[in-house]
Amino acid sequence: MTALPALEVYDTTLRDGAQQEGLSLSVVDKLAIARHLDDLGVGVIEGGWPGAIPKDTAFFARAADELRLRHARLAAFGSTRRPGGQASSDAQVRALLDSAAPVVTLVAKSHVGHVTKALRTTPEENLAMVADTVAFLVAEGREVVLDAEHFFDGWLLDRAYALEVLQVALAAGASTAALCDTNGGHLPDVVADLVAEVVGATGARLGIHCHNDTGCAVASTLAAVEAGAVQVQGTLNGYGERTGNADLVTVLANLELKRDRRVLPPGGLTEATRIAHAVSEITNVPPYSRQPYVGASAFTHKAGLHASAIRVDPDLYQHVDPTAVGNDMRMLVSEMAGRASIELKGRELGLDLSDPTLLSTVTDAVKAREQEGYTFEAADASFELLVRRVACELGLGDDVPDYFHVDSWRVITETRPGGGHGDATSEATVRLVTGGGRTVATAEGNGPVNALDAALRTALTPTYPELGALELVDFRVRILDASHGSDAVTRVLLETADDGRSWTTVGVGPNVVEASWEALVDGLAHGLLHRQVPSRA
Ligand SMILES: CC(=O)SCCNC(=O)CCNC(=O)[C@H](O)C(C)(C)COP(=O)(O)OP(=O)(O)OC[C@H]1O[C@@H](n2cnc3c(N)ncnc32)[C@H](O)[C@@H]1OP(=O)(O)O
Ligand SMILES: CC(=O)C(=O)O
Prior knowledge:
Elements: E1 8-11, H1 27-40, E2 44-48, H2 54-66, E3 73-79, H3 91-98, E4 103-109, H4 112-117, H5 123-139, E5 143-149, H6 151-157, H7 159-171, E6 176-181, H8 188-202, E7 206-210, H9 217-227, E8 231-234, H10 248-258, H11 272-283, E9 300-301, H12 304-312, E10 330-331, H13 339-349, H14 356-372, H15 380-393, E11 404-414, E12 425-434, E13 437-445, H16 448-460, E14 471-479, E15 490-498, E16 501-509, H17 512-530
Parallel strand pairs: 1-2, 1-8, 2-3, 3-4, 4-5, 5-6, 6-7, 7-8, 9-10
Antiparallel strand pairs: 11-12, 12-13, 14-15, 15-16
The chain binds acetyl coenzyme *A and pyruvic acid (PYR).
Pyruvic acid binds at residues 16, 107, 147, 149, 180, 182, 209, 211.
């Protein structure tokens, strides 16, 4: 059996990925992402277009001093020289050389319609531009990759011309011809057929660069590899122009885990989840929870039947071991839970739910509460408090310590005389009993929940100074039965954090402030529980 050719992983997050709407990377961001890509183990990092984008010019200048790449080489991206000129005196081409990148990737027209309409030159001059630019850069000691723009459309329109563009580039010394589905409109079978034809016609080293406009970029990339492409181009998290590029993380995981092709250095793939999420932080694009392999939901199980099988063998409902990509299995607790889901969730949270009565009672309580509008899926902290309270009622465990008892609370919101829109303030008063005795506290806030939070802390901090480390970080309200308008039941999810941990609690009620209060009080109780503050009540 002949050995399969080695595959080269070519990342274009910093160039094509940065073409995504809403994404803007600073030079520091680019350097940080390049380090992550190198940790992942990609072979080539396309850093941007020096000479066209000042930030990219600066990136290459700083990369030369600051990046110590262990696996990757840098590629500078740019276009062939302008029509009617010479590569050696073309400012854009010289900027590619000045970048000092060992690899230069040239975007070239391979679609005759683009040559005449977009470039506004003749097919012959386009061929001369390709040959001249490639030869010049190769003579300067650079490896040249030719990104054949609109290749698949070009081939279907005029096969001979598209092929001639590749042949001219290869003859001038290009190492690789990357076939681009620039408009992302082709389906995997077409991509595979055309790649196979080009391999047959040229025997050249081919790359594949797919956009995701049909939702098939990953599938087309894999199909192209099966057909003989040896360089896979893509971006982290599938960032890119319009609907994005092939998600490199998914492509690489599929190649390694489904096709047994080694594309990353040992240990690289197990870094995939960490790196995909770290890069989301840098790009400020929220991670996509349903992203294959590395998404937060990729190995998360909600249905009771799934959990009951997983308890016996996780492989029964998972296509791969999540640790292969550095991800984790998670269980969700909801109305769809059976006893198995509840028990596994308990295990995840370190709660002993082995008692059958406790397990059934908690399962029933979860279902009943979900029916009322609670959701435990995103509110692990409320689930834990529920388990502990039920366990206590059944005489099977310690209750949540009685840190404080609420006598009453009140909140008013008003505008001051002469105040305009946005000037409303809230004032809250809480009456509590703590270990220190009965206490009344009043505080102001920019809204009712903020004021209640402040009043609660004012009342509690003398007894529990640890509360000073807790912070309310997120507050989400959802109307559960919108048809009732302002009468509807509301659900509040509230996230509290201390130094290093965050947890979510849920409150439900027809009154949004009352629902918020429930989530607020449980958020503080959970925080105190995990800071192991002894009850002083
Ligand atoms: C498929 C892709 O994603 S390729 C990457 C695309 N990325 C970008 O465009 C981002 C960076 N681009 C830029 O900063 C600017 O567009 C620049 C600096 C490259 C060019 O700016 P300008 O000189 O103002 O030209 P403009 O953007 O209006 O038009 C592009 C020019 O490049 C020419 N061009 C397009 N493709 C090629 C090519 N493969 N080879 C040579 N010239 C090309 C066009 O014909 C047009 O020429 P014209 O100025 O004579 O009309
Ligand atoms: C080169 C490139 O990004 C494309 O053709 O899509």
